[in-house]
Automatic annotation (TrEMBL):
Keyword Metal-binding: no
Ranges annotated as spanning the membrane: 12-30, 42-60, 72-90, 102-121, 128-147, 153-173, 185-205, 217-238, 250-269, 275-292
Alphabetical UniProt keywords: Membrane, Transmembrane, Transmembrane helix
Compartment(s) where it occurs, according to its Swiss-Prot or TrEMBL record: Membrane
Record's protein name: DMT family transporter
Domain EamA: start-end pairs: 15-142, 157-293
GO cellular component: membrane
Membrane topology: Multi-pass membrane protein
Organism of derivation: Marivirga atlantica
Lineage: Bacteria, Pseudomonadati, Bacteroidota, Cytophagia, Cytophagales
SUPFAM superfamilies per UniProt: Multidrug resistance efflux transporter EmrE
A Pfam match: EamA
Length: 297
């Protein structure tokens, strides 16, 4: 018999909060990586370290895949990991980590929109309300200035929006293409398939080795990015899988609401300033996600 959240409430809530802490801390880790490395280097290092730590899971399963699964795992890796890793890093060169963490909460909304437009999903009235609120909050975050006024358009927010759109496509691809594969296999092999691209770019088209040799703080920033890749991807995946086993996808989706809170707290600790309109935008996005995720009885 499977364990239910009622049987071990401390365990399941502990895992949920721990998972939110890990994923909510990703944005401050990206910020610390950008202290020394370029956005491209941060993105490539994130993919490289995550793929390396998951090699024991991915290599033994390679021979069991069909050509069709290989194709879709590569597409999933590019859309769900490679693209977002670079897009988030580029965004955070000009965007606060806390705001980036809040915009990341748009993922369920984009998953819903993509499902309706491209995968035959259905849109309910509450979904329309959730999408409207979510995008209204996004607009506020994009145009809110640092001095309390509206009007300073931050184009770098579109990199985060593009990343969450990628996540939305990937979630639908996972749902429709990989019903027979476990999340561990999907994640580990998709990362393995795209890791050569990240490695080739990192060592062939950037000055990564020169930065490591000559720039002060390089090893510390590399440690932060390694934590991002290893803990934020591999370790978090194990926790996520365990949480789904213990509870349900509905309960696990609650992590979506906790991640922005963790990201904002880290941002405030690091000296980032939020104004009134930021808070309004944050509330609108979280409420919008709640409406989009709510199930009818």
């Amino acid at each position: 018999m499977s364990e239910k959240p009622e049987a071990k409430p401390i365990l399941v809530w502990g895992l949920l909060i721990f998972l939110a802490l890990i994923w909510g801390s990703s944005f401050i880790l990206i910020k610390r990586g950008l202290d020394v490395f370029s956005a491209g280097q941060v993105g490539a290092l994130r993919i490289f370290t995550a793929a390396i730590v998951l090699v024991p899971l991915s290599l033994p399963k390679l021979k069991t895949l069909t050509p069709r699964q290989w194709k879709w795992l590569f597409i999933s890796g590019m859309i769900g990991s490679f693209g977002p890793a670079f897009l988030f890093a580029i965004a955070q060169t000009q965007l606060a980590s806390g705001i980036t963490g809040v915009l990341n909460a748009l993922t369920p909304i984009f998953a819903l929109v993509v499902g309706v437009l491209f995968f035959g999903g259905q849109l309910k009235k509450q979904d329309v309300l959730g999408i409207t609120l979510g995008f209204a909050g996004t607009v506020l975050l994009i145009v809110a200035g640092s001095g309390g006024e509206l009007g300073n358009f931050n184009y770098y927010a579109f990199f985060v929006i593009a990343a969450t759109l990628c996540y939305g496509f990937n979630l639908n691809i996972l749902k429709h293409q990989f019903s027979v594969l476990t999340p561990k296999i999907i994640t580990s092999i998709s990362l393995l398939l795209i890791s050569p691209l990240a490695t080739f770019y990192l060592f062939g088209y950037t000055d990564f080795l020169e930065v490591m040799s000559n720039k002060e703080g390089a090893y510390l920033s590399l440690t932060y990015i390694s934590i991002l890749g290893v803990v934020g991807t591999a370790f978090a995946l194990i926790i996520f899988n365990r949480l789904v086993q213990l509870t349900s996808p509905v309960f696990t989706s609650f992590v979506t609401y906790l991640i922005p809170i963790v990201a904002i707290i880290w941002g405030i600790i690091d000296g980032e300033v939020l104004i009134f309109w930021h808070y309004i935008g944050i509330v609108l996005i979280i409420v919008g996600v709640a409406f989009s995720n709510r199930k009818k009885k």
